[in-house]
Amino acid sequence: MASIKKLDTRKFKITVSNGYRPDGRKISRAKTITVPQIVGGRGISQYVAHEAEEFEKQVKNGYCEDGEMTFQEYAARWLERQTRYAPSTLGFYRRSLETVYPMIGNIKLNRLRPIALENMLVELRKRTYHGKPIQEATVQKYLTVASAVLSDAKRNEIIEKNPARMIDLPETTSRTQLIPTDEEAHRFLDILANEDDPYKTFYALAIYTGCRRGELCALKWQDIVMNGDESILTVSRSRSSVPGQGVIEGTTKNGQA
């Protein structure tokens, strides 16, 4: 049960015990509240009792104890637990988080508010790439990664809400994908005919199969089965360059052959 200590007429300290550490020390959390002036004198005790009850629920459910971790501490643990992502995707997440750590990394999970994330976005929009402001879509990718970490904390009942979900974001400009016409593709293949391998084979397969770059780089001769005038191509691996790790081979993006 929560203990309540009166510090002033409207200020109270609430302390909740939540078990013991391995060394025998008691685990306890405390917070100080100030009763709003709008609450009359007779309603102070009822207000404090309600706050104490809510605070005890938070502590018992684990919100407060783990919520004391900083965003950076939790994000590092989150990265270690991810097994379903390709190495290149994890590399992207890691680089994105390293970019946002200086702005929100030291904030405790239970203290991270939407305004801190909005300020982060403002700072990111000031950045440039090759002398030009970075695209809004790129800025929002950083928020998406931070949101994935915070959603995991919410799923584990460490925080009650994901503050990244509370931000109103501007519309992003979608890029138009340039797809070559049949005439352009044939002209390109005619030029490739005079080139040496592996470039000739690489680009020809890219046009005819639509494989991703990493999938093409991971192909082996045994992945191609010739059957008369037809050929069967099996794509089951992908290669990517991960900073600090070199070239890593893993499954395809959707994990299917």
How is this structure best described in words?
With 257 residues, the chain is of the alpha+beta class. Helices cover 43% and strands 18% of the residues. The chain has helices at residues 44-60, 63-67, 71-81, 87-104, 114-125, 136-155, 182-192, 199-209, 213-217; strands spanning 3-6, 11-20, 26-34, 128-129, 132-133, 224-227, 230-233, 238-242, 246-250. The radius of gyration is 27 Å and the shape is elongated. The mean pLDDT is 86.
Mind sketching the topology for me?
Layout: E1 3-6, E2 11-20, E3 26-34, H1 44-60, H2 63-67, H3 71-81, H4 87-104, H5 114-125, E4 128-129, E5 132-133, H6 136-155, H7 182-192, H8 199-209, H9 213-217, E6 224-227, E7 230-233, E8 238-242, E9 246-250
Antiparallel strand pairs: 1-2, 2-3, 4-5, 6-7, 8-9
Helix pairs in contact: 3-4, 3-6, 4-6, 5-6
Count the helices. How many? 9
**Sheet with most strands: strand arrangement:** 1-2-3
Mean pLDDT, to the nearest integer, reads: 86
- Biggest sheet record: 3 strands, antiparallel
How much beta, percentage-wise?
Answer: 15-25%
- Could you tell me the number of beta strands? 9
Question: Between the first and last Cα atoms, what is the distance in angstroms?
Answer: 56 Å
The radius of gyration is 27 Å
